Amino acid sequence: MYFAGMKRFAEMQLAKLVCGVILSKQQVLGAVLEKLAALYGPVDFASEGMDFNAFTDYYNEEMGAGLTRHFVSFERLVDRTTLPGIKHATCAIELQCAVQGNRTVNLDPGYLTLGQLFLASTKDNFFRIYLGQGIFAEVTLYYERGGYVDFPWTYRDYQSAAYKNIFLQIRAIYKKQLAVLR
User: Fold this and answer.
1) Domain-by-domain residue ranges, the chain?
2) Quick check: 4 pLDDT over 80?
3) What HEC string does the chain produce?
4) pLDDT digits over 129-168, tens only?
5) Cβ neighbours for 161, distance < 8 A, ≥ 6 positions apart
6) Rg (CA), the chain
7) For 28-74, how does the pLDDT look when each residue is reduced to its tens digit (9 = 90+)?
8) 29-40 helix and 83-97 helix, angle to the nearest 10 degrees
9) How far, in Å, CA of 105 to CA of 122, rounded?
């Protein structure tokens, strides 16, 4: 029985890399996407900018007011175990884009499967699982009966219908990719 489980583990499906991009007025989305694409390949989905400050002013002191959030996904599927390295790489991009020690971009990478959306975090909490390299994974949303459902800990913006609709669009792209792989 143990070995049968190991075989199943070895055949784990690749996941869809997604990244939330919060931008200040100083930053241009195209430059950030070029940096991300250089690491993770072509972008296959990019959302319109949404008013991040409608949900929170958490980053205003560092990044200024009027922040927008975009979501992107990438053609190349990823091994789920690479999430810590991806988080470290996106933190490096944030530092490259910083002005006078303040971030002008905040990158929130994660991955989407057919059943869940996971986000990477450097912060521990009871609902996050340690992956290694100082990085935790959080199940942020799960998919059920044609839509995404949140948890009590899900960030308020991720609870919004607009964000969930974006993840449905990305999930549809991912589902087509998996069908081709079979």
Assistant:
1) 16-181
2) no
3) CHHHHHHHHHCCCCEEEEEEEEECCCCCHHHHHHHHHHHHCCEEEECCCEEHHHCCCCCHHHHCCCCEEEEEEECCCECHHHHHHHHHHHHHHHHHHCECCECCEEEEEEEECCCEEEEEECCCCCCEEEEECCEEEEEEEEEECCEEEECCCCCCHHHCHHHHHHHHHHHHHHHHHHHHHC
4) 999 999 999 999 999 999 999 999 999 999 999 999 999 9
5) none
6) 16
7) 899 999 999 999 999 999 999 999 999 999 999 999 999 999 999 99
8) 150
9) 16
pLDDT at 9 over 60: no
Query: Which residue do the tokens 């994660």 mark?
Result: 110
The tokens for 180 are 């081709």
